[in-house]
Q: What sequence folds into this?
């Protein structure tokens, strides 16, 4: 299973870069959310369920994606 690196820089499969600020718990569902910030533009803060953040790219919808996963940590 993939692990999230808090304070890591991740690249979305569409090419944009993001900084993982941390995690939070959704008060309604109890699911873990990833809090991540754009490293471009307004540098806004976003949240997404952990399982979705770490999920593979949907190959049916995006057959030419170069990455295996939706977000991949940069070295």
A:
């Amino acid at each position: 299973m993939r692990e999230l690196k808090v304070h890591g820089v991740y690249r979305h499969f569409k090419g944009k870069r993001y900084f993982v600020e941390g995690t939070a718990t959704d008060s309604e569902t109890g699911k873990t959310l990833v809090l991540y910030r754009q490293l471009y533009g307004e540098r806004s803060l976003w949240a997404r369920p952990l399982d979705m953040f770490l999920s593979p790219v949907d190959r049916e919808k995006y057959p030419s994606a170069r990455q295996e996963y939706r977000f991949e940590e940069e070295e």
Summary: Residues 11 and 17 are 4 Å apart (CA to CA).
